[in-house]
Amino acid sequence: MKPINRRKFLQVAAAAGTGVALAPSLAMGGVKNFTPKVWTDHDKPALLGGTKAHPGEFPSWPVYDGTEEQALIDALKSSKWGRLDGKLTAQFEEEYAALMGMKHCLAVANGTTALFTMLGTLGVGPGDEVIMPVYTFVATYNVCVLNYALPILVDTDIETFQIDPQKMEQAITAATKVLMPVHMGGIPANLDRIMAIAQKHNLPVIEDACQAPGSEWRGKKVGSYGIGGAFSFQSTKNLNSGEGGAITSNDESFIRACYRFHNQGQGGQSENYNPGAFEGGTRATNGRITEFQANILRAQMTRFQIQDKRRSRNIAYLNSLFNEIPGITPAKLYDGVTNVSHHLYMFRYDKQHFDGMSRDRFIQALSAEGMDAWVGYGHLNKEKYVTGLAKNRHYLKIYGEKTMKEWIERNHCPQNDKLTSEESLWFGQTMFLGSTRDMDLIAEAVRKIQKNAHQLKNQS
Ligand SMILES: *Cc1c(COP(=O)(O)O)cnc(C)c1O
Fold first, then answer.
1. Ligand 1 centroid from CA 27, angstroms
2. Which of 97, 74, 107 has its CA nearest to residue 292?
3. Pairing mode of beta strands 129-133, 150-154
């Protein structure tokens, strides 16, 4: 019998007088050619001409519909396009603070502005040291350098991909002004240890939570542990308005001072506000967000928790599959982590379990199977862009040649070197907005590549 497609089947069924109600059982028997795809050891990797493990597309980003369209039109038709004119930004701030379980929120132009504003408000400047992880987006570094402070890059805890708290404490000197941990990939850094170190040394903490809106440590959202938290709504981030950012805080004086800093030194009045409380009171910029961004964020927030749950469910399942694959190790979570809002799926690749096949070849093989992984951040401390600071005219003037030479040495991060040069890999958050079937296919692809690693390594 020739294979019969569904349309033809329905025609045949209708002609034979069979009701559509019977279709399911008939369809099972009728379509003879249908055999579910079973992967076998003999399946060839797609890179060597085999079938792609994931033939379709992963979910696209951003996700929007009429809700976002209406939000933009509402902002447009209000004729009040900036926060100094309209009310939408203030509404967003209230809603976002509530979502994060915090008292105050200040929306700003982007995540970089959120960090820069907080450092400015704390009065960080020339001669000050700021402690941060080496394993982060370059923005964390840039905001220090913009203030002519000295960024001290701390080594990575290779298992969690987060800043190593012990090395963080060792990096503290008399010049240290702020601790700036990052919750990398959406996974909380070790906040118990970091907050204890901050208390012991009497240092403020600014949390770079740009990748972690909604992640929790001991039941409380990250970004609420330090004096302030920074969030990014840049287009790749989990909450997206193209560009955008926010500062959260439970300290009213601090958020008022941040408001002034981001608004040319103006505003921030309130009965409780003490303008002298923060050193940065005499410097300012324009870091304001627009009403369009604020209203898009309000629309995106209606999807945020649903998307977050879906990612978490898929990632929990993928972790269980990867647990069975030697040589693939997802980033571990510290004990205090009670929720992860996944921005990146960070994992380690051990080539010993793949017949010595390089990480780059593994990425190529995955890409051929229909899924993109990438190496992610590298060794920021060794990049020319960063090491060049030791020769910067202003830095030489402020810190002197000896200090800048020593700075290069202080930023030595052997664990991070090992992690980023050989092992680290990322999947992006949008890969986890689909079905559990997607997760099965990712794991199948990895198993297939592992079984054929010898051949993949030697053929190109
Ligand atoms: C995205 C990001 C930033 C900067 O945010 P922008 O909105 O792009 O300015 C800062 N830190 C980290 C860790 C980020 O991921």
1. 52
2. 74
3. parallel
Q: Does residue 403 lie within any of the structural domains? A: no
Nearest CA to ligand 1 atom 5: 111
Side by side, which strands form the sheet with 104-108?
Answer: 104-108, 245-249, 228-232, 206-208
Sheet strands (E) in 303-377: 328-330, 337-339, 344-349
The answer to whether 366 and 373 have CB atoms below 8 angstroms apart is: yes
Banded model confidence at residue 33, pLDDT cuts 50, 70, 90? low
Whether cis (ω within 30° of 0) applies to the bond prior to 62 is yes
pLDDT per residue over 286-330, tens digit each? 999 999 999 999 999 999 999 999 999 999 999 999 999 999 999
The SS3 assignment for 247 reads strand
Query: Which residue among 144, 234, 243, 342 is best mutated to probe the pocket of ligand 1, counting the most ligand atoms within 8 A of its Cβ?
Result: 234
Number of domains in the chain: 2
The answer to whether 59 and 434 are in contact (CB under 8 A) is yes
Specify whether 180 is located in the same domain as 233.
yes
Q: What Rg, from alpha-carbon coordinates, does the chain have?
A: 26
Backbone angles phi, psi at 118, to 5 degrees: -65, -45
Ligand 1: list residues with CB < 6 Å. 110-112, 136-137, 139-140, 182, 208, 210-211, 232, 234, 245
CATH number at residue 84: 3.40.640.10
